[in-house]
Amino acid sequence: MEKYWNQALTFNEYMQEAEKRVQQTANTDEYFTYYELGLHRMERTLKTFSIEPEHLEEVKNKQFKGKILIISEPWCGDASATVPAVAKFFEAAGIEVKVFLRDADVTLIDQFLTNGTQSIPKVLILSEDFTVRNTWGPRPKYGVELLKKFKENETVYPREVFYNDLQVYYAKNRGKDAIEEILNLI
Fold first, then answer.
1. How many whole angstroms separate alpha carbon 173 and alpha carbon 66?
2. What is the mean pLDDT of the chain?
3. φ, ψ at 155 (rounded to 5°)
4. 174 Cβ neighbours under 8 A, 6+ residues apart
5. Which DSSP state fits 9?
């Protein structure tokens, strides 16, 4: 894990990479819209996110001395809604956070598949010695429930409605559920 940690970006570098991708990707590229939307959502999350004092107290009481490594990509909708909040929260708690770009080297994500897929974001809770203590992701439990509902019957719960419901949830929740779920894993 230390190798991946050393190759990972700080959250600020990750945001710079997201901005660079928007600026340098042709608007005819299939990823352009996702990069643009992802950056917009991350910026919105950063503007609206506020740290809950009880969450800071909880992480302090746990005396966590490890690190947080997030596997992500700027084009991912789930990541754009949760990664900024998770990164800013743990940074505020004095815990080092880095973001590893999934597509740069899939050998990391391949160790943490979700139902056989390379779903992101994936949060790795690391000990001081880079041992993986636990993992979280790719979305909070409520998001998992929405996805399950969509997959059970797409005619009753169409893709567009699922995507809209998920993004409305993310916009209202502002990373709170993700942080609480990760804190429970520490």
1. 26
2. 95
3. -75, -35
4. 45, 48, 49, 50, 85
5. B
